[in-house]
Amino acid sequence: MNLSLFLFLIGILGFILNRKNIILMIIAIEIMLLAVTLLVLISSFSFDDGIGQTFSIFIISIAGAESVIGLSILVAFYRSTPFQVIIDSLVDYYLFSNIEKK
Asked: Where, by residue number, does the polypeptide cross the bilayer (predicted)?
């Protein structure tokens, strides 16, 4: 039970400290959801109840769907920004300038 509390606090701390990086925020949310899943599983095994195990599978599937939706929104936002052309040209310049120097 202490491990799940520790993981949940790490997730909250990661969410608070990484407000500008959306990928790290999604990872922090995943850590929090997995901590809750671990707590549900520990409680399920200690009370010898099967509902907690099925509920933990439900939590894991919701966490996976949340990650997919978050990352797809991030990709859609990246594709719609006008700075993508500038970033791509800088990447191309960096790649081709290193090839020409060799």
From this structure: 24-45, 57-78
